[in-house]
Design brief:
The structure is a single chain. The protein is 11% helix and 53% strand. It has helices spanning 4-27, 195-202; strands at residues 36-39, 41-53, 61-74, 78-81, 84-91, 95-104, 124-137, 143-150, 152-158, 161-169, 172-178, 182-193, 221-234, 238-248, 264-278, 282-285. The chain is mainly beta. Strands 2, 3, 4, 5, 6, 7, 8, 9, 10, 11, 12, 13, 14 and 15 form a 14-stranded antiparallel β-sheet that branches. The protein has a two-stranded antiparallel sheet with strand order 1-16. The protein has one domain (4-285): Outer membrane phospholipase (ompla), Chain C (Beta Barrel).
């Protein structure tokens, strides 16, 4: 049985996944496209619901609902908001490098037929630098195209144990558009990971071999082609966001794993945020990158 700390840590990762996965892809850009002064901090409550495949290659999915507080913080070098936590390492007019996060929910193997009898999948946090190059921005600064080049380390959490599970990268072409109320985001790009990352999801050790599930050693390489789309509508104190993510696994390095039961992955969700308080101090936020 997990300790209280383990349960709390799992909740925190789940919460980060909702704020990072649902809200980051759903809201895409919290600030308006035009530079302006904004509160140093904002606080409020949110609720999110999503449906997603258990993991890349799973033919079973789960639905989740969350209610949570949120806190937004803005400074010159660090921002923590619906887009996630970002530490800016450097920025030029069209080039920026920051530290970004992503996360995934745990999977109970009892709930997934392909993984029945195997170890559960713990919540995973991905963290690492992302190099961003903006190669087009409209004159009104409401529309832009950029190239994202991230590399993240995958870390799983089980009580006090934190385990490095390898590296993953998803170079993408990203379109961002809209005004101070409407924001749209579309990104497309391939995913790649090393063997250590893939083995966590696709390896089958000899002790878990059974009828229809032979032993398998995962390989590094191509993971799939990811398409993400999101839309956000901002009102006075309330914002509503929705997203859809699709990954095509055809031709993936581990497509022949017995744990890959589907060649596509689908996730979608919606989030609502209600701002309850904000600071009187303001900070000048540059135009969205």
């Amino acid at each position: 049985m997990k300790s209280v700390f383990g349960v709390f840590l799992s909740f925190c990762v789940k919460y980060g996944m909702v704020c990072g996965f649902v809200c980051a892809f759903a809201t895409s850009v919290v600030a308006s496209a035009v530079a302006k002064e904004q509160p140093v901090w904002e606080a409020g409550v949110g609720a999110a619901g999503l449906s997603m495949s258990h993991y890349l290659g799973a033919d079973e999915s789960g639905s989740y609902g969350f209610a949570y507080p949120f806190f937004i913080y803005r400074s010159e070098y660090i921002q923590a908001d619906r887009e996630g936590f970002r530490g800016k390492l450097f920025q030029r007019e069209n080039l920026r490098m920051n530290i970004s996060l992503n996360a995934s929910l745990p999977v109970n193997s009892e709930d997934n037929h392909a993984r029945e009898g195997m170890d559960d999948l713990d919540p995973m946090l991905e963290i690492g630098p992302t190099l961003q190059y903006r190669f087009y921005q409209s004159s009104d600064k409401y529309h832009s195209w950029k190239l994202d080049l991230p590399i993240r380390a995958g870390l799983t959490f089980d009580d006090f144990d934190i385990t490095h599970r390898g590296w993953i990268s998803n170079p993408s072409v990203v379109y961002s558009g809209g005004d101070s109320r409407w924001r749209r985001l579309v990104s497309l790009g391939p995913m790649f990971a090393d063997r250590r990352y893939h083995e966590y999801y696709y390896d089958v050790e000899q002790e878990f071999v059974r009828g229809g599930r032979e032993a398998y050693n995962a390989k590094s390489g191509y993971t799939g082609l990811k398409l993400s789309m999101s839309l956000r509508r901002k009102f006075n104190r309330v914002s509503v966001a929705g997203f859809v993510r699709y990954v095509d696994l055809q031709g993936a390095a581990n497509e022949d794993s017995p744990l890959v039961k589907a060649t596509d992955y689908v996730a979608f969700g919606i989030a609502v945020h209600w701002r309850l308080a904000e600071s009187s101090d303001k900070v000048h936020v540059k135009s969205s990158f």
